[in-house]
Amino acid sequence: MVPVRILWLKRVVFAACLVPLVVLALEGWRRGLGANPIAAIEHSTGRWALVFLLVTLSVTPLRRLTGWYWLLRFRRMFGLYSFFYTGLHVLSYVILDQFFDWTAIFHDISRLPFMTVGFASFVLLIPLALTATNGMVRRLGAKRWQALHRLVYVIAIGGVLHYLWLVKLNTTDPDIYAAILAVLLGFRIVMVIGRRIRRPMTERLPRLPADGAE
Amino acid sequence: MLISKPPDIPPSEITDEAVYNGRRRFLAAASAATAGLFLNRVSAADLPPDLPGLPPARPSPFSTHERKTPYRDITNYNNFYEFATDKYSPATLAASLTTRPWTVTVDGAVRRPGTYGIEELIRMNPLEDRIYRHRCVEGWSMVIPWVGFPLNRLIRQVEPTGNARFVKFVTLYDPREMPGQRSDILHWPYVEGLRIDEAMHPLTILAVGLYGRVLPNQDGAPVRLVVPWKYGFKSIKSIVRISFVEKQPLTTWVRAVPSEYGFYSNVNPRDDHTLWSQARERRIGDFFKRPTLLFNGYGEQVAQMYRGMDLDKYF
C-alpha cells in the first residue's frame, strides 16, 4: 500500500480504537451502565484489553495468509491499545472498585486465582509497552527485543485464564476468547514446525535465528 | 426459643403507627405525580410500574431503616439463571413467566399436606413489610422492601412431624417459560433448603411483593423465600414445592460447586470464595464499599442457632 494511504488509514484506525472508551463514557454519562456501573466499567475495559491483545496477535497470521505486509505497521498500535485498555481496567479496579485499599487489593491478588493470573499478566505487559519505540528496539537489539516480546504469548494466555476463572458458571464468552487464542497460537506452532521440516538438515545446525517473533 | 430479643432499634426511631397509617392514607390520596416526593425522594422512574397491588401490609420491627435500593435497580440486576446467566436480561426474559394461576405444594413429613393457590396463600396470611438487607455472594448488596409473611405461619398450618428436620424448596421447572433451563448450566429444577429451626425463624419469610406491589417476575414471582442472614442464592425464587424432609437436601449450588458453596451459606466476612473476598461489599448505589457483617448484621437474632458450630467448617 502507498505510504500516504497507510498514514491516513492509521489515523482512522487510531480513532476507531477509541470508540469503545467513548461509548463507555457516554453510557456512564447517560447513567446507562446499570445498577452496578463500577462492575460494568471493569468488564468493558477488561474485554477490550483482551480484544486488542487478540487483534495484535492476529496481525502476523493475517499477514502470512494474505501477503498484506502493511498490516505489520498496525501491530504496535494494537498492542499499545491493549495496554491502554488494560491500564484503564486496572485503574478502574484500584480506584473505582477498591479505592486504593491496598490491603484488600493485596488480599485479592494473593488469594483469588483469577486475580493472581490477571495481575501477573498486567505486570508482564508493562515492559512490552515501555519498549514499544523504535529507539528501544535499537537499544535492546532486535534479537533481545524479539525475545522480550515473545512474553505476549504468556500474557495472552494469562489474560484469557483471568477471564475464564472469574466467571461463575457460564464460560461461553471466555471460551470464545480461548478458542481464538488457541487458533492464533496454533498457527505459530504450525509455522515453526513447517519451517523445521522444510529446512534441510545441513542448515539446521548451527541453528538460525528465528525470523519472526510475532 | 428461637429469638433472643428484637433488634436494637430505639423506640424513638420507630414511626408511630398512627403516623404511619396517616402517611398511607395521605399517599393514597396524593396524585401519582407528587407521590414520588414523599417516598425518600425516589424519582418517578424508581417507583414500581402498574403491577397489581396487594392487601395492606403491617410494618415490622425487623425492618431496617437504611435507605432502600431504588426499584429500578432491584428489578434490573437479578441473578435468575432460569432465564439467563447475566444480571440484566432476566428483567425482560422473565416477562414470559405465567405467575397466575400458581400453586405451591406442601408435602413430606407433615400431618396436613396440601396444595395452595397463590391467592389463597396471600389471603390466609397477614402481610408484613419487611425491609431487609440483601447480600449477594458476589459482593454486592441492596436494601429491599419485601412484602410477605413469616414462613413459620405456613409451617404451623401443615403441622410437621418429628421427622421434619429440614425443609426443601423447589423452583418451577418449565423450559418453555424459563429459557435458561434449556441449558444444563445448573441442575434443574433449582433446589434450596433450610434446617427446620432456620425455616421457623421469624426473620425467614415467603415474599409475595416488592415496594407494596406484587413481585415482578425477575425477582421471583409469585412467591419466593427470603432469608436475610444468608447469601442471596439461598432465597429461592418462584417456588412450586415445599417439602419437609429428614435428610439435609442437596441444594443446587452445592451440587454444582461443592468446594465453593455450602448448605448453610450464612453471610460471613471471614469466608473466602475463590472468586470473591467476602470481607466487604458494595451496596448498590454506593461508591465506597462497606464492611460485610457476620450474618449480614442479623447476628443478634440468628447467631444462637449456630452456637457451638464451626462456621468455617459448616459454611
Can you give a write-up of this model?
The complex is a heterodimer of chains A (214) and B (315). By secondary structure, chain A is mainly α. Chain A is built from eleven helices and no strands. Chain A has helices at residues 3-16, 19-29, 37-66, 75-97, 102-111, 113-130, 134-140, 142-149, 151-166, 172-198, 201-204. The two termini of chain A are 21 Å apart. With 315 residues, chain B is an alpha+beta fold. Chain B has a single domain (11-306), classed as Sulfite Oxidase, Chain A, domain 2, CATH 3.90.420.10. In chain B, strands 3, 4, 7, 8, 9, 11 and 12 form a seven-stranded mixed sheet that branches. A five-stranded mixed sheet of chain B has the order 2-1-10-5-6. Chain B starts with 16 loop residues before the first helix and ends in a 13-residue tail after the last helix. Chain A binds chain B through residues 34-36, 38-39, 96-99, 101, 104, 107-108, 111-114, 165-166, 168-170, and chain B through 72-73, 76-77, 81, 85, 87-88, 138, 140, 185-186, 256-257, 272, 274-277, 279-280, 282, 284-285, 287-289.
The number of distinct β-strands of chain A equals 0
Largest interface: A-B, 22 and 27 residues
Q: Helical proportion of chain B? A: 10-25%
Uncertain segments of chain A are none
Number of domains of chain B: 1
Using brief descriptors, characterize the structure shown.
heterodimer; A: mainly alpha; 79% helix; globular; B: 315 residues; alpha+beta; Sulfite Oxidase, Chain A, domain 2; 7-stranded mixed sheet
What are the SSEs and their pairings?
The complex is a heterodimer of chains A (214) and B (315).
Chain A: H1 3-16, H2 19-29, H3 37-66, H4 75-97, H5 102-111, H6 113-130, H7 134-140, H8 142-149, H9 151-166, H10 172-198, H11 201-204
Helix pairs in contact in A: 2-3, 3-4, 3-9, 3-10, 4-6, 5-6, 6-9, 7-8, 9-10
Chain B: H1 17-29, H2 32-35, H3 71-74, H4 90-93, E1 103-108, E2 114-117, H5 118-124, E3 128-135, E4 140-150, H6 151-158, E5 166-171, E6 191-195, H7 196-200, E7 205-210, E8 213-214, E9 224-226, E10 239-245, H8 252-256, E11 280-283, E12 290-291, H9 299-302
Parallel strand pairs in B: 1-10, 4-11
Antiparallel strand pairs in B: 1-2, 3-4, 4-7, 5-6, 5-10, 7-8, 7-9, 11-12
